[in-house]
Amino acid sequence: MKAATAQATGTVRKIDHDRPPRARPRPGPSLGWPAMVMPFKASAEQRAAVAVGDTVAFEFDPQGMATLTHIGKR
After folding, report:
1. Which residues of 13-34 are buried (b: 16+ CB within 10 A; e: fewer)?
2. How far is CA 9 from CA 1, 2, 18, 37, in A?
3. Domains in the chain, start-ordered, CATH in brackets?
4. Which residues, at least 6 apart from 51, have a Cβ–Cβ distance to it below 8 Å?
5. 1 pLDDT band (50/70/90 cuts)?
6. Which of these, 10, 30, 33, 35, could form a disulfide with 25 (CB 3.0-4.6 Å)?
7. Contact, 60 vs 6, CB < 8 A?
8. Measured between alpha carbons, how far is residue 49 from residues 5, 44, 45 in Å?
9. Total Cβ atoms within 10 A of residue 52
10. Could you tell me the maximum CA-CA distance found in the chain, to the nearest angstrom?
């Protein structure tokens, strides 16, 4: 059974095309996570769709290293 995805909003802090992008998600009530800066696995298209400083809404698979399933500017 596939794990449920989680949704959050945050600010893009860094995009390094050779490494996972980093974001500062606001506290995630669906997971009970505090605010933090963390890397997310993202496709080249997802990385190209946002810029450092953008406020974004995103959905991700929280298992292992968080993998973005959707990201968009707010």
Report:
1. eebeeeebbbbebeebeeeeee
2. 26, 23, 24, 12
3. 6-73 (2.40.50.320)
4. 12, 15
5. very low
6. 10
7. yes
8. 20, 9, 6
9. 11
10. 36
